Each structure stands twice: as structure tokens, then as C-alpha cells.
């Protein structure tokens, strides 16, 4: 006597389809999470950036994205100096000497006379804006990524 057991799986096609589409959804939603993180860092860096007279530094903090990468870019040429505090405020000593001898006259750049320049450097204290923004962004990244993963897996 032979016993035949027939097992029939229901919903197998939809299960296979789910496992085929999940990686694409995860990739799309993780890229969205990266963009969200970059926007968070941009907003935070703009809030922390030195405003000066014009606010130019804050206005040059931008998010650039391609299909695979997202970057936060600062295009102000002096941004690294503000971040690190190594600002190239160099005043040649000759200017001070000329000013002390005749205060009303304009200084002459002695390099044009073939003299070796001597200078005083007045570094500005560091006013970091990107490093704190990145740190706060990385602290929020697990929440952002968790939200993206839950969205990808639930849909």
C-alpha cells in the first residue's frame, strides 16, 4: 500500500517576485537615505558656517549627487582656512615699517624691488562647520537608514 502526499504551495510566485524586487528597492531607498543624510549635513553646516558680512561661505555648501554617490561640497575658496583656522592673513613687515615711518602713505610691496619678503602671519582661530555637521549627521544616520530599510522591506 502506497501513500501519496501532495503538497501545494500557495503564493510561491508572489514570494519569488518579492525576493527578486527587494534588492532593487533596498538599493533605491538606501540611496535616498544617503541623499537625506547629505541634506542634513548641508543644513547643519550652513547653520554652523561663519556668516561674515555676506554669508557667501554658507551659500556655497551644496549637495551633488550622481547615480551612485552623494557628496556635500563647499566651493568657497577659503573654506578650508575657516575650517582649520590656518588662514593666510599675511602682512609683510615692510608694510608696518613703512606705515610707522609715514602713516599717511600707501605701502610699497618690496618684492617688486627685488627684496626678500618678511611677514607676520595673523592666523584666525578655527571656526569648524563641516566636522561638527558630519558628526551630527553620522549620529542620525542609523535612524535614517533604519527608516529606509523598513520602507524598502514593507512595500
Question: Could you explain the architecture of this structure?
Answer:
The chain is mainly α and 155 residues long. The protein folds into two domains: 74 residues, no CATH class; 35 residues, no CATH class. The protein is built from five helices and four strands, in the order H-H-E-E-H-E-H-E-H. The strands form two sheets. A two-stranded antiparallel sheet has the order 1-2. Helix 1 packs antiparallel against helix 5. The radius of gyration is 29 Å and the shape is rod-shaped. 12% of the residues are buried.
Please list the strands of the largest sheet in the order they lie side by side: 1-2
Strand elements, count: 4
Report how far the terminal alpha carbons are from each other.
Answer: 48 Å
User: Strand pairing plus helix content: what structural class?
Assistant: mainly alpha
Relative strand content: 5-15%
* Radius of gyration (Å): 29 Å
Tell me the series of helices and strands, N- to C-terminal. Answer: HHEEHEHEH
Number of domains: 2
Q: Helical content, roughly?
A: 40-55%
Largest sheet at a glance? 2 strands, antiparallel
What is the arithmetic mean of pLDDT?
79
Number of helices: 5
Q: Which residue ranges are poorly predicted, with pLDDT under 50 across at least 5 consecutive positions?
A: none
Q: What is the overall silhouette?
A: rod-shaped
